[in-house]
Amino acid sequence: MNIIRLFLFLFLIWIIWSFFKRKNSRRIQEIQEQPILKQGRMVSCKYCGLHIPTEEAIHIDNANFCCIEHSKL
Ligand SMILES: [Zn+2]
Fold first, then answer.
1. Is the whole model's pTM more than 0.85, yes or no?
2. Dist. CA 6–CA 61, nearest whole Å
3. How far apart are CA 35 and CA 53, in angstroms?
4. How many A from CA of 68 to the centre of ligand 1?
5. d(CA 29, CA 12)
6. What distance lies between CA 49 and its chain's CA centroid?
7. Residues with CB under 5 A from ligand 1 (ion)
8. CA dihedral in degrees (34, 39, 66, 51; nearest 10)?
9. For 68, what's the count of Cα atoms within 13 Å in the CB-facing half-sphere?
10. pLDDT digits (tens, 9 = 90+) for 16-56
11. Which of 2, 6, 26, 45 has a Cα-to-Cα distance from 56 of 20 to 30 A?
């Protein structure tokens, strides 16, 4: 009876371990995919028309600017 319990216990550990492993690998995949998606998004500066990635652009009133100086002008 003890051996059966031990096997059940090991089986339970294996299920939990495989679940966490799958969860982590999916998270790594998401992190790796994100920069590719971000690189594809480009916006142009409303003042000078320069194309810049979305995360580097300055957003003011639905308009995009390449730098703080251009957003003020
Ligand atoms: Zn600009």
1. no
2. 63
3. 11
4. 9
5. 26
6. 28
7. 45, 47-48, 50, 66, 70
8. -160
9. 0
10. 999 888 877 777 666 666 555 545 688 999 999 999 998 88
11. 26
At residue 34, the pLDDT reads 58
As a whole number of Å, the CA-based R_g of the chain is 25
pLDDT at 17: 93
Distance 71 CA to ligand 1 centre (A): 8
Cα–Cα distance measured from residue 61 to residue 73, given in angstroms and rounded to the nearest whole number: 14
Instruction: Report how far ligand 1's centroid is from the alpha carbon of 45 (Å).
Output: 5
Which range (4-8, 21-25, 64-68) has the least confidence?
A: 21-25
**CB < 8 Å & 24+ apart, contacts of 19-28:** none
By 3-state DSSP, what share of the chain in percent is helix, strand and coil, each rounded to 5? 65, 15, 20
